[in-house]
Inverse folding.
């Protein structure tokens, strides 16, 4: 899809777009439009989360690294980064343009590097890191050598992220860190992690947190895979036991980690809306679902047709929303609340699609009889509860929309002014 | 092609909004609802004056030659206030049929519509009220060089006030469109309506003299364009109405105190408003896409798909926000005096006017090739 | 429907049931089972709220009074009432048995007397009234002469009922009352009203309310009909201007009105579950909706069929729930949370049915083309928003279930301890 | 007729619950899931000992001669804990078929089922997995006085562990039921299942020797009874599971603190729990009605209608509460280790096992005469 580039120095951007096309033409094949579904051909796996064997996972990570290396070398690996640290020094608009052009090509999925590391941790290091930290990590990350993860959530700090209890205490010219992190994706592949640590328990929770870059190979760091209900282990628990970190790997001020975290989260929210239908896009597309209905003898059933139509109307409208938000950014607009809305809609659409497909499949969803494209819907179905929780639960997203976008009043009796040490915690502790 | 820039459209919005603030407040709306014609002729003249009625009339017929993108601005504002006007029947349905017919004889009518001098309506549906493009039981026959219409049309939007009727009827050469300008042998009946801010009539013909519009057999193609134009127009209106409901709920949730708190601080109310907001955002995206693609902008969704998507999503958003707005308001929200129910009535009416969700689901799937 | 009468002195109850049957056989016709729907026959009005002409309303009230007089004379008008005031002195089980037997007969609807007056205000007078008030009102009410209404809600006291601002101040041997009540059903027919009044604004809101019986014909009482969105005026506003009331018409203690109100509300909640599908029962029954589908050509449409089936499954299950709750009471059990659940389900079921019917009807729901059973669905449709609000909003019912039944914690920062005078109120005042 | 009083049934519930507390906790469940047979044989023996397996077996066959009302107690407890057992295949499906066949030759099998000595399964569905009572492609033919079965059955609940298979097959005299007790020419394959706590197998026959159960052509009538018994049983199980999810959510909402408050004090969580409670109450009423009407109690709903109503309402309640329970628990709720997903899996599986909502909607309407 090409974009109208009005309002923003068309010539420069057009030249940039052309250079991106030249690079991609030389380095990758164009994707072909999939309008025909060949039922029964190929693998019928329909997944949201990865569930690869360790060997396959390594292969995919290697491919991601290699493609990042290639585009970095060509000047498209870190378009918005400062030139001093290996970036191209161009605008976010250039970045969006490159992404929309790259989406037309068949290139390796670089999510393992880009979703967390390059998309969220990188910009946070740029904004808050010491020169030493920047120089040490940024070029390696964007050259595809280093993978970064986000050590934020804890068992008692989920929706209430500022409630982190992982302790960092001063120790010489660094910090000694103890605690447990959870829901850490890509930790098993990562060389570096950004951790939120409690450094002052005597002030309110938002004001006693410090952000530290942790070497994931350091002594005391233990990564344990956390298996999710759909079967795979997309996430990890990370145990930090007397992990020692130089102070120069601190981001932001001591006790000023909350604003560092906000930088990271801001970049997360901005990325969510653009993901489209994600890994399950093909499976919940009109042609695939229509083929599924045909295969199961209900292509003429008015109930199934009605549900397909309603689902596709909502999915298409969501895609219009996302595309318009991107157009808006490309033409120089500020990001709006579309990302939060898009996240809510996205999880609703996929959930409806998965239940719809299960119903079309009928009883063969219950056990694997070997029929192609039947039992395979389970993996997506079993991922749907997570979509309402990950990256901010539905409840939290609605609070954000209600309070920050619509200006509705907060709940009374918040704990933002209570010293962390005096806060109430869950009885069972997890 | 979009003929206007975003700032130009915002100017248009402001001038329409100013008008509606003056002529379309609660009192004016109640007056219009209770009046003989069902609308304020002063508001209609004022809309004509700011050019709101001529946006989609071709330049050759004295209009601005713009498209759905510009008309959307007017419709959002009309939907926001629910100011009763014959806009849908006259400017959307009848004028689209006149333009789509390609008949130069339609130009004088379009000019008068653009200037606010003529009100018009499109008479298509019969007994079951369902949109159709063929198989009309209303018939036209040539009688010594004059076409004469016989049959009954139900659910003619703005049919009672229309000076000009565009009528679909069967002929020997297939379904065709006719213009009726006289009141000879025409029986009109204003119907009780669900939506108190939009008039609907039944019209019966009994040997009524009529002029052929375009060529015999043209009706299906023209009516397909009218259908899509109506869906795109309703979508814009629905977004305006849905946003009005959201705004009303948010304002009330900030103002109303129960249990010593603004009710908007309760998650039940806050999340209800957030859900309304999400629906409005989605509907707005769909209505925008439908309008821009109707105007054949590049890099947009296929126009026919976008129109059906918008009709589905915007109908849902309007219905949802109208329902939840009443709920946020509690008791006061379901009184006759409070405007909340007018939005509920409009939402249900617009959702069902073109056949309802079942018909639109099949329309969308057909357009997606399923 | 006959009930199994195990566990509770079968002989006595059976004899009572037989006497009820004898009375009803002599005084009324049996209802016939309506299984066949004759489409197009009779009136097609489908309403939840009444919307009669004043003459019709008077006729219905007269018929209700006459029937109440008849059954009172026969000893079935106040089965649970104290004999001293004209009651029969029997148990609530006898009452339930009589109701379930009477439901088999074609008798006038006595709702205008019984829903509020006999069902809620009467028991409150019995529990909290002076002997003078009891003697003056109770026999008249149960003999069908007096209609009572409930003057509780106010513009600023809806969900937050204890927030009433209608003032009653001591004046000689009585009270002078000023204020405005709202959502008062049957006020236009009522001779007496039970009002909650603010008598002490210097204590927390629940502790400064006094309950007074107001003569609705007294000087200073003005009843104005309040038209609801579906067109009729089921409710009223009641303006009280210097209305004078003898202290002997006080119920309960001075400033003790909240517990009086709780007695009334308890009786409301108990009655809700038993109402079945209410006035719209026939219209949303399987035969009627199936006939509607047949008439509109979608009896074979799988989408319409699916929605009909889901609706009927939920409606039937709701009727099982209500019937089992009644059985439970008849066999001596305590009322459970079924009434609140039943109210939620009831409003959901009717709302779904009304929207479903509108969709089956198609575009003819939009304007009255004269087709039988088409436009007529609007009145029910336009009543559905009220069902989620009246008698406790959905939100309040869910709070009750969450807090009182499931034991979940209340919201922090309530205002139950703040003096009424210092409470925050809405800016716009309504 | 209900053969027991409420206190007697509460005694039964207590004894089953005690057993499950001992043999059916999280660890035991994990062991069972990972085991060869998919269940704990010790638990099965213990269930037999307290009489849980013989409730609906006729007295003539050594059972208690009770009905669905008593079995509902056991099934609610099994649903509550999701203790993996072959109860559905053996006691509900196979035993109901044996009883309904009216064949005295079934008595020894019923006796062994009642004592826990025999596990059994019913093999009905074929290729598409949909419940059917006729048109089987599996065929039975008489071969010198011995019936021999040929064909394949998919989705046989507890099929891999069953000592006794009740098989539906076509014969020249119509669809009939057969008993297979040998493993000669039987190929069984344990399938990967959505529901990890219930085993399902495919079974193939290739000239397998079998005994006729009842008379030729009896299968449709018997299978209709099995279908209703299965719906009533699943409903009871689903109520137990739904209540377990509600209880787990309420407990977690009281325990878990975020933002300095128990999360159950937030309306979003509180109202979610209230919605779950409403679903549980409705489902419980439907399951109760279905069980009592199945036992032909007077003044109850028609048994066939109540069974289909219960299957609809209880499936919905189980699915809803399982989904919302995960959501209330947040991240921990969608981990493999937490039992929440087992309820989600069971809920979807039970909802779809007999054809799913579409099939059940038509079933209900047929029973209502629509």
């Amino acid at each position: 899809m090409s974009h109208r580039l009005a309002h923003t120095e068309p010539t420069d951007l057009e030249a940039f777009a052309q250079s991106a096309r030249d690079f991609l033409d030389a380095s990758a094949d164009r994707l072909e439009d999939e309008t025909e579904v060949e039922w029964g051909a190929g693998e019928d796996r329909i997944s949201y989360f990865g569930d690869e064997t360790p060997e396959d996972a390594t292969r995919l990570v290697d491919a991601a690294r290699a493609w990042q290396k290639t585009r970095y070398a060509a000047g498209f690996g870190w378009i918005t980064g400062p030139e001093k640290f290996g970036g191209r020094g161009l605008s976010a608009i250039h970045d969006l343009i490159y992404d929309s052009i790259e989406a037309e090509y068949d290139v390796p999925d670089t999510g393992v590097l880009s979703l967390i590391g390059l998309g969220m941790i990188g910009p946070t290091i740029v904004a808050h890191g010491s020169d030493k930290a920047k120089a040490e990590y940024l070029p390696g990350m964007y050259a595809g050598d280093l993978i970064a993860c986000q050590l934020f959530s804890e068992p008692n700090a989920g929706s209430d992220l500022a409630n982190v209890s992982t302790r960092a205490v001063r120790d010489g010219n660094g910090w000694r860190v103890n605690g447990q992190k959870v829901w850490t994706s890509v930790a098993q592949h990562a060389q570096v992690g950004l951790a939120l640590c409690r450094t002052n328990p005597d002030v309110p929770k938002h004001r006693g947190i410090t952000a530290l870059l942790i070497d994931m190979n350091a002594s005391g760091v233990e990564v344990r895979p956390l298996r999710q209900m759909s079967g795979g282990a997309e996430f990890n628990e990370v145990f930090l036991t007397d992990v020692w970190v130089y102070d120069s790997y601190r981001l932001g001020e001591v006790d000023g980690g909350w604003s560092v975290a906000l930088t990271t989260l801001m970049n997360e929210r901005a990325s969510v809306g653009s993901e489209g239908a994600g890994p399950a896009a093909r499976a919940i597309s009109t042609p695939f679902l229509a083929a599924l209905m045909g295969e199961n003898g209900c292509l003429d059933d008015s109930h199934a047709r009605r549900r397909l139509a309603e689902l596709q109307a909502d999915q298409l409208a969501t895609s219009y929303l996302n595309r318009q938000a991107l157009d808006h950014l490309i033409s120089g607009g500020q990001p709006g609340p579309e990302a939060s809305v898009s996240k809510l809609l996205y999880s609703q659409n996929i959930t409806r699609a998965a239940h719809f497909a299960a119903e079309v499949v009928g009883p063969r969803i219950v056990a694997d009889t070997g029929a192609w494209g039947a039992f395979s819907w389970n993996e997506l179905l079993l991922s749907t509860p997570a979509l309402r929780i990950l990256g901010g639960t539905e409840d939290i997203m609605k609070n954000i929309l209600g309070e920050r976008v619509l200006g509705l009043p907060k709940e009374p009796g918040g704990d933002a002014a209570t010293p962390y040490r005096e806060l109430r915690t869950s009885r069972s502790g997890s | 092609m979009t003929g206007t820039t975003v700032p130009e459209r915002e100017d248009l919005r402001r001038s329409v909004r100013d008008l509606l603030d003056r002529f379309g407040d609660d009192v004016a709306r109640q007056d219009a609802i209770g009046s003989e014609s069902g609308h304020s002729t002063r508001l209609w003249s004022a809309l004509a004056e700011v050019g709101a009625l001529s946006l989609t009339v071709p330049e050759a017929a004295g209009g601005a030659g713009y498209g759905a993108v510009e008309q959307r601005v007017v419709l959002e504002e009309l939907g926001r206030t629910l100011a009763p006007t014959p806009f849908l029947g006259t400017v959307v349905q009848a004028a689209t049929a006149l333009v789509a017919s390609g008949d130069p004889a339609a130009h004088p009518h379009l000019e008068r519509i653009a200037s606010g001098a003529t009100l018009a309506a499109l008479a298509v549906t019969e007994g079951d009220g369902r949109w159709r493009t063929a198989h009309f039981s209303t018939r036209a026959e040539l009688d010594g060089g004059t076409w004469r219409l016989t049959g009954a049309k139900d659910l003619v939007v703005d049919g009672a006030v229309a000076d000009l009727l565009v009528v679909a009827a069967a002929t020997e050469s297939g379904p065709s469109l006719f213009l009726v300008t006289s009141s000879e042998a025409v029986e009109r009946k204003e119907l009780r309506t669900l939506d108190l801010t939009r008039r609907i009539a039944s019209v019966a013909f009994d040997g009524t003299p009529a002029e052929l519009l375009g060529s015999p057999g043209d009706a299906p193609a023209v009516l397909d364009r009218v259908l899509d134009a109506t869906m795109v127009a309703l979508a814009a209106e629905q977004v305006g109405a849905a946003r009005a409901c959201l705004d009303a709920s948010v304002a009330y949730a900030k103002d109303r105190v129960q249990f010593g708190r603004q009710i908007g601080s309760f998650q039940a109310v806050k999340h209800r408003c957030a859900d309304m907001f999400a629906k409005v955002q989605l509907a707005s995206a769909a209505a925008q896409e439908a309008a821009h693609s109707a105007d054949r902008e590049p890099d947009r969704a296929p126009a026919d798909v976008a129109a059906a998507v918008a009709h589905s999503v915007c109908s849902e958003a309007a219905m949802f926000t109208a329902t939840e707005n009443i709920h946020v308001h509690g008791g006061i929200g379901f009184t006759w005096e409070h405007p909340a129910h007018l939005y509920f009535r409009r939402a249900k009416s617009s959702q069902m006017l073109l056949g309802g969700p079942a018909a639109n689901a099949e329309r969308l799937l057909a357009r997606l090739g399923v």
Observations:
- The beta strands of chain A are 29-30, 105-106, 148-151, 167-171, 174-181, 192-198, 209-215, 221-226, 235-246, 250-251.
- Chain A touches chain D through 52 residues (CB under 8 Å).
